Amino acid sequence: MINMKGVTKKYPNGVTALQGIDVSIQQGEFVYVVGPSGAGKSTFIKMMYREEKPTSGRVIVNGTDLSKLKDSQVPKLRRQVGVVFQDFKLLPSLTAYENVAFALEAIEEKPAIIKKRVTEVLQLVGLKDKAKMLPSELSGGEQQRVSIARSIVNKPKVVIADEPTGNLDPDTAWDIVNIFEKINVQGTTIVMATHNRDIVNTIRRRVIAIEDGRIVRDEQRGDYGYEA
Question: Domain ABC transporter: where (predicted)?
Fold first, then answer.
C-alpha cells in the first residue's frame, strides 16, 4: 500500500527532517509512528498524502509514484487517502453532516449516494443523532469523530492520522482509537503518528520509531519504547 525508497527531506532552512527512509506498509496493516518531538514523524506522515515532497527518493502509495504526480493530480490521490489531523480542520459554518458530505460533493457524487454514505459513516463513528450540529456545538471528541467520518466517506484504501488524540482527554482518546480499530477491521490501512504511550502499549500493532529523521525501530506488535 505504501512504499518509501531512499527518502530524504531537506528543508530550505537547512534542516534535514528525514534521512534515507526505506519502509513498506502492506494493505490492511495498522501502524503506529512514534518518536520524540522533532524526530521527523510529521514529515514522514505528510509524505504519504503529498503534503511534502522528498528531496530525494521515491514515495509510492497504492501503486502511484508521488514524485511523478502533477499538482493537478493531488486531489485524486487524496480521494484514495483519508487524513485525520490533531486540530480537526472542520469547516465551522457547516454542520457535522455537511462537513462529511463536502468530500463527496467535491467529486460531484450523486445526492442519493451522498446521503446514504454520510449517514453510514456518521453512524459508524456514533454521531448519527448529532448530524445537524455545528462544530462549535460539539465536544472535541465529537469533532474528531466528524473528522474521521469525513476521512473515510470516500472509502479510501488508507487513513493517515497525525496525532489524532493529541487534544483529547484519555477516555475520549480511547474512543477515537476504537473507531480506527473498526475501520481497520474493514480492511483499511491505518497509519497513526502518536505520543500516546498507553494506547500503543495496550493495543499492540506494528510500531515504526523515528529519531533524528531515521527509522531506528520497526517491530510487529511493538511497544512505545520511550519514557512517559
Answer: 2-228
